[in-house]
Input
Amino acid sequence: MLQHDRIRKVSKIVRALVALFIIMQVGVYALLVISAENQDGTYQLSEQFTYFSSAVNVDFSGSWGNMAQALTDEGFNALLILGSAELVPSLLIYLLLFKLFGLYQRGLVFTVENIQCIKNVGTVLLGWLILKLFYPLLVSLTLRFTGASDTLSIYMSVGSDELRYLLIGLVIYVIAWVMSEATSLHQEQELVI
Output
């Protein structure tokens, strides 16, 4: 019973942290969209105080770096176009983790709902990989076909971020599958006894 209490307490703390991360990510994104300065592909908002300084930034380095620079050169807000696409999967993962730790907080550890939450996190990461690969292509084609840009190149690139999303997504998905198999095996053993 003591372990269940510890699981509930830790889950409550983690849920609070996840909620804080959700609020921070949405708040920082909104703040940057409203008032950030673009400096060489990095959107930054900084404040200098008497004894300390504060800075928040989003950097589109990696596979979306060229796309961000091209959008900026064409006069588009790369933070709004690319940043919003990055925000959605992050928020989905945070919400799934919030739900998962809510289940743990209620004492539900090895249930179908938990396993589905974990599978969904893996699925979002794999979907994020697809987004990272094809979203710049979709943006380029959309801007060209609508006439908003005649010179924007068509971008599609693969970098280490995409490979990381693939690996982590697959590992999480396999962990959920192993948990599902272990739960089924445990239930079968209980029926035999």
